[in-house]
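To fix ideas, we close by showing one paired sequence and structure record:
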Amino acid sequence: MFTLQATATFEQEIKKGRFRATAGPITGEQAAKDFVAAHSDAAANHNCFAWRIGQVYRFSDDGEPSGTGGKPILQAIDGQTLDGVAVVVTRWFGGILLGSGGLVRAYGGTAAACLRATDKIELVVRVEARVTCIFSDLALVKARLATAPGVRLDNERFFETGAELAVALPESAADAIARMLIDITAGRATVDFDA
């Protein structure tokens, strides 16, 4: 799964109508509502939107025929395996009717083009852990943690004989990283996963 690094826009003209997509990362339902409100244009004919946060999602056709605005935008989000993302597609009518199929292609296509052009970051599920080691092993432990993908060092606390590192490990590799740290220190390091 991925999310967007920043807010982005994409605009195109389809049969004299103007479509502008604005997509951005969101952290919760209220953030999604705020994003939609901030990026909707009251002077436009329609502001269709969709957003997804995990299993929670919403979409709106904003007066367009049912299923022609919000749902294609949500499909564009899902089609690019995105999460924590909101997209608003604003339409200014150009005088030519697009029909249901044309609207689906226009809304979904504008959203998809915007999402494709936006930098993405991978969502990594992490687990918190405490690594305790003696000073003679500290440099080796930190070097190995630095080479493991997705590891984040949150805090270091030193005591008389060594250090305790607060780390966030990728959930999928947490056990393997813990075994590796214990192995390279001949069992002197301990790894405790926070409850």
